[in-house]
Amino acid sequence: METMDGILPSDGFDPFDLNRPHARWEQFRKEEPIFYHEPSGYWVVSRFDDIKAIFDDWKTFSSENAQKPMRPMSEAGRQILKEGGFTAYSGLTARVPPDHTRIRKVAQSCFGPRRFKSIEPQIEEIVKTHLDKLEAAGRDGKPVDFWDIVAYPVPAHVLFTLMGIPDRDMPKIKQYGASRGKMTWSDLSDEEMIPVAHDMVAYWKYIHDLLDMRRDAPGDDFPSDLLRLQAEVADISNEEIAGVLYSTLFAGHETTSTFMGNYVIAMMQNPEAWDAIKADPSLIPNAVEEMLRYMPSVVGWRRKARTEAVVGGVRLPAGAEVLMITGSANRDESQFPDGEKLDITRQNARTHLSFGYGIHYCLGFQLAKMEGAVLLRQLSERFPDLRLAPGFEAEYHRNITFRVPTSVMVQLGSAA
Q1: So what's the pLDDT on residue 5?
Q2: Under 8 Å CB-to-CB from 43, ≥6 apart: which residues?
Q3: CB-CB contact of 354 with 300 (8 Å)
């Protein structure tokens, strides 16, 4: 098929509804792998090879729209942002070379394996502390919310260790992160945009206040490292440093929280995989990769065609806005045989696209996998009889990119 006006009936397809999307995505891969979705104005791409090719061709498919709100901010919201001095653009995901290359080089030198490894003992302790809270909450055998007690707070506390942010600030940073996710990737009403705009102003001010504090009193943390490199003549401006923190303070915990919630759901729905991990913890690293493939937190990314281009036999016009359903690509049978099945021994599990691909590959992928592995090991050791609460079925917030569960209700069984 090669067309520019291939508008297909949406048949009720709602890209914001992520509750039970996999059967529809499979249908897209088989019947209409690239089509124009008129209600959203996006060309929807669902196959692995096509999405990987788009990721890889950053010159044709720009990431400039990756952070563009799906629904433009209301006039009242824009006024709040303007009066509050909100000028955030993007850390890295929406930037293109040469700026992307220059900024990523600086950020990567501070946010990498050495620093992640140095806080591994703290990660172990943070996970243990929150599993203690889970045990206390579930001691009477009643269902408890794993999302609220463990998945939601743990990655924030880990990230705050890296950032040098006091734990007391966790609730408001999580609130700012949730608002940012809604502003960019959800379909808010004009009224719903007002509190989100206020949160974005507060978030941007928090970041600038943090940087001012680190200029006065440097610490052993990521913001201090960025400022130190800048002082040593690294080519990065104050606003670009703030932009990196704006992105990292969001992506560094929201994505991992969502992944933790989703992989507990996946494990409990696949008891043979859970039993295998309990019997052999050496399976955990590959199990984390497989769960990143099977139940990722990020299921869609956006790109914009700078010029006319052909992908998968479909001609996309210059200026086309593209929605890549990476959650669909991760189950594409051509790359992952029996892709709708969770298989923690899958040999090519790590070729998933959950961290993106190409120049925008996720900066914190190693940290996310480390946290996932630590939690899975401790969880399997302490709560071998963990199961989903009877009748529980996950529901997900409306979003085009982040598949965030509203709760993850579990019963603990006997704790070790």
Answers
A1: 42
A2: 34, 35, 36, 37, 314, 316, 320, 321, 322, 323
A3: no
Tens of pLDDT, residues 370-411: 999 999 999 999 999 999 999 999 999 999 999 999 999 999
Query: Is the CB of residue 197 less than 8 Å from the CB of residue 88?
Result: no
Q: What is the distance between the alpha carbons of residues 103 and 400, in angstroms, rounded to a whole number?
A: 27
Quote the radius of gyration of the chain (alpha carbons, Å). Answer: 21
Classify the phi-psi angles of 312: left when phi > 0, otherwise alpha if psi is within -120 to 50, otherwise beta.
left
SS (H, E, C) the chain: CCCCCCECCCCCCCCCCCCCCHHHHHHHHHHCCEEEECCCCEEEECCHHHHHHHHHCCCCEECCCCCCCCCCCCHHHHHHHHHCCCCCCCCCCCCCCCHHHHHHHHHHHHCCHHHHHHCHHHHHHHHHHHHHHHHHHCCCCCCEEHHHHHHCCHHHHHHHHHHCCCHHHHHHHHHHHHHHHHHHHCCCCHHHHHHHHHHHHHHHHHHHHHHHHHHHCCCCCHHHHHHHHHHCCCCCCHHHHHHHHHHHHHHHHHHHHHHHHHHHHHHHHCHHHHHHHHHCHHHHHHHHHHHHHHCCCECCEEEEECCCEEECCEEECCCCEEEECHHHHCCCCCCCCCCCCCCCCCCCHHHCCCCCCHHHCCCCHHHHHHHHHHHHHHHHHHCCCCEECCCCCCCECCCCCECCECCCEEECCCCC
For 259-292, how does the pLDDT look when each residue is reduced to its tens digit (9 = 90+)?
999 999 999 999 999 999 999 999 999 999 999 9
Distance, CA of 57 to CA of 392 (rounded, Å): 42
Model pLDDT, residue 248: 87
Whole-number pLDDT of residue 96: 86
Q: Is the peptide bond before 98 cis (omega within 30 degrees of 0)?
A: yes
> How does pLDDT run across 18-53, given as a tens digit for each residue?
999 999 999 999 999 999 999 999 999 999 999 999
